[in-house]
Amino acid sequence: MWFPPEPEQVRRVRAYVEDCLTRWGLLDRFPVEAVSLVATELFGNALKHGKPDGRPLLVVARWRGETFRVEVDDYNPQGPVLAWATDQDPEGRGLLLVDALCARWGHLPKRPGGKFVYADIPALGPEAER
Ligand SMILES: Nc1ncnc2c1ncn2[C@@H]1O[C@H](COP(=O)(O)OP(=O)(O)OP(=O)(O)O)[C@@H](O)[C@H]1O
Ligand SMILES: [Mg+2]
């Protein structure tokens, strides 16, 4: 789904991934809050670091087996890197959260001058399902 590159859209991005989980019958199989948080952070990073120029940003939700993937396009070919924020840094921890919540994440080039960032959220284990 395409979203205008505006902070106000974060609410809609969260609603989109939650709607995918609902429609695909996955609410019991994946951690909804974690999926929403990851989508929020990737979309926020696309706004903050993805060289937005007014064109809409593509957010894709994919599900295969034990993995729910969120992808966000942007217009900066350079990839994200884990920052090591110190006590003095008010920001720079978003990807650390993504890293903690996801089985893997990364980026792949997409069309000249752009990329998409993906993050794979693993399914809940049997204990969490009870
Ligand atoms: N989509 C992106 N494109 C290019 N660089 C990115 C992207 N996302 C993150 N980065 C780089 O990775 C760094 C770490 O990202 P992270 O999300 O942890 O921090 P932040 O976005 O700067 O701060 P916060 O998430 O706390 O608002 C960023 O400072 C930026 O340099
Ligand atoms: Mg961030």
Automatic annotation (TrEMBL):
Q: Which residues cross the membrane?
A: none
Histidine kinase/HSP90-like ATPase domain sequence ranges: 3-103
MF (Gene Ontology): protein serine/threonine kinase activity
SUPFAM superfamilies assigned:
ATPase domain of HSP90 chaperone/DNA topoisomerase II/histidine kinase
* Keywords tagged on the record: Kinase, Serine/threonine-protein kinase, Transferase
Write down the superkingdom of origin.
Answer: Bacteria
Residues in coiled coil: none
The record, for Pfam families, names: HATPase_c_2
This protein is called: Histidine kinase/HSP90-like ATPase domain-containing protein
Organism, by scientific name, is Carbonactinospora thermoautotrophica
